[in-house]
Amino acid sequence: MAEFTSKSYFDFLEEGRIMGSKCMSCGTVHLPPRPICHDCGATEMEWTELGGEGVVQAVTVINVPLSKMEGRCPYAVAVVKLDDCPSISGLVHGVKEGGELSIGDRVVAEFVKEGDKTTLCFRSS
Ligand SMILES: [Zn+2]
């Protein structure tokens, strides 16, 4: 079985799957996965596959990019509360300016291949 680490998380993204670790004691889901529950301290974990649909909790549109994002502005970064797990932040595609994406909007996960690495992004659903 894969270890409950960020490396495993990224390996699963390559397969188009969002996998978190679920505490077998209290049921808390961790994303990215971790081997020790931050709620109850238990170390018994199992893998759980997450659906990839969620709701925007916070969003900002970036107009001055990080160097690796040069030429891609504007783009949006959001904190997304997945339906079946904790919040995670990610790029949201298809957002050109502020106001196009609001808190409470539904988004769906997208797996974006960049070079030899797959990242988790979102798109308005
Ligand atoms: Zn726990």
Brief descriptors of the model:
OB fold (Dihydrolipoamide Acetyltransferase, E2P); globular; five-stranded mixed barrel; 1 helix; binds zinc ion
How would you characterize this protein structure?
- It is a single chain.
- 7% of the residues lie in helices and 45% in strands.
- It is mostly beta strands and 125 residues long.
- The protein has a 5-stranded mixed barrel with strand order 4-5-6-8-7.
- The N and C termini lie far apart (33 Å).
- 24% of the residues are buried.
- Bound molecules: zinc ion.
Please outline the helices and strands.
Elements: H1 6-14, E1 18-23, E2 29-30, E3 45-50, E4 53-62, E5 75-82, E6 87-93, E7 106-114, E8 117-124
Parallel strand pairs: 6-8
Antiparallel strand pairs: 1-2, 1-3, 4-5, 4-7, 5-6, 7-8
The chain binds zinc ion (ZN).
Number of helices: 1
* Count of the separate structural domains: 2
Radius of gyration: 15 Å
Q: Taking all residues together, what is the mean pLDDT?
A: 88
Would you state the CATH class of the largest domain?
Mainly Beta
Q: Got a strand count?
A: 8
Give the overall shape: globular
CATH architecture annotation of the largest domain: Beta Barrel
Strand-residue proportion: 35-45%
Helix-strand string: HEEEEEEEE
Q: Low-confidence parts lasting 5 or more residues at pLDDT below 50? A: none
Helix content: under 10%
How far is it from the N-terminal to the C-terminal residue, by CA?
33 Å
